[in-house]
């Protein structure tokens, strides 16, 4: 997890890394884009369809998706359905009206990357309260957060998600504090405290709440 923007503040813990994606079942879905989703750094890395299907793709693909497709557009998505919640990891997204397609391809070898020393420089302290629409999962299938009904994304390290397994269910009302981004696509934060309204548990002792 990148550091919060406050100079000298203790660092939130790093986000958990996995050993690569868990292959799912090949699948294709069609639907209307309800909204885009972002990660705590503010990158578009998913979209929610009108039937609540959750489509995920790497952040380096997100800018191309967002510049090609808009909420309200009908799309066809091919990819791999990952268990247990059936999230679709997209390999090809097509706009049915324009015919334009975006494929998940590795970024160019010479792609510019933000220096590690500047990672997280734009993050701000955020809080959220809302009803869980979907539980999100890491590439290998373990729970790593929630998507709220208003589109807010709350990320949890998988070990912390295990601690709150009773709250990670659709329909549950949860609360969280952490660091992340709010932009024109939505809001996302990496939680440093999680629980129910008025009853937050601090996840990491060295992070100010």
What's this entry about, in short?
The chain has two helices and twelve strands; from the N terminus they run βββαββββββαβββ. It is mainly β and 209 residues long. It is globular.
Can you put this structure into words, describing what you see?
The protein has a five-stranded mixed β-barrel. A five-stranded mixed β-barrel has the order 7-8-9-11-10. Residues 5-22 have low confidence and may be disordered. The protein is built from two helices and twelve strands. It is mainly beta and 209 residues long.
Number of helices: 2
Strand content: 35-45%
Number of domains: 2
- CATH superfamily name of the largest domain? Nucleic acid-binding proteins
Question: What is the mean predicted local confidence, pLDDT?
Answer: 85
Portion of residues in helices?
Answer: under 10%
CATH topology of the largest domain: OB fold (Dihydrolipoamide Acetyltransferase, E2P)
Low-confidence stretches: 5-22
Order of helices and strands: EEEHEEEEEEHEEE
- General form: globular
The CATH class assignment of the largest domain is Mainly Beta
The largest sheet, given as strand count, sense and whether it forms a barrel, is: 5 strands, mixed, barrel
Number of strands: 12
From the alpha-carbon coordinates, what is the Rg to the nearest angstrom?
Answer: 17 Å
Name of the CATH architecture of the largest domain? Beta Barrel
Physical arrangement of strands within the biggest beta sheet = 1-2-3-5-4
Strand-pairing-aware structural class = mainly beta
Between the first and last Cα atoms, what is the distance in angstroms? Answer: 16 Å
């Amino acid at each position: 997890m990148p550091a919060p923007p406050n100079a000298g503040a203790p660092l939130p813990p790093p986000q958990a890394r996995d050993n690569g994606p868990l292959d799912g079942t090949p699948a294709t879905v069609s639907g209307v884009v309800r909204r885009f989703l972002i990660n705590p750094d503010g990158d578009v890395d998913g979209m929610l369809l009108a039937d609540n299907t959750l489509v995920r793709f790497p952040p380096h693909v997100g800018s191309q998706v967002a510049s090609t497709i808009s909420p309200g557009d009908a799309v066809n998505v091919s990819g791999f359905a990952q268990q247990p919640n059936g999230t679709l990891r997209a390999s090809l997204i097509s706009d049915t009206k324009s015919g334009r397609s975006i494929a998940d391809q590795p970024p160019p070898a010479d792609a510019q990357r933000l220096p590690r020393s500047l990672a997280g420089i734009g993050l701000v302290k955020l809080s959220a309260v809302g009803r869980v629409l979907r539980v999100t999962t890491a590439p290998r299938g373990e729970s790593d957060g929630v998507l709220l009904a208003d589109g807010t994304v709350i990320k949890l390290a998988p070990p912390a998600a295990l601690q709150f397994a009773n709250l990670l269910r659709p329909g549950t009302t949860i609360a969280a504090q952490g660091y992340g981004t709010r932009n024109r696509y939505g809001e996302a934060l990496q939680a440093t405290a999680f629980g129910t309204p008025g009853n937050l548990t601090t996840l990491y002792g060295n992070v100010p709440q």
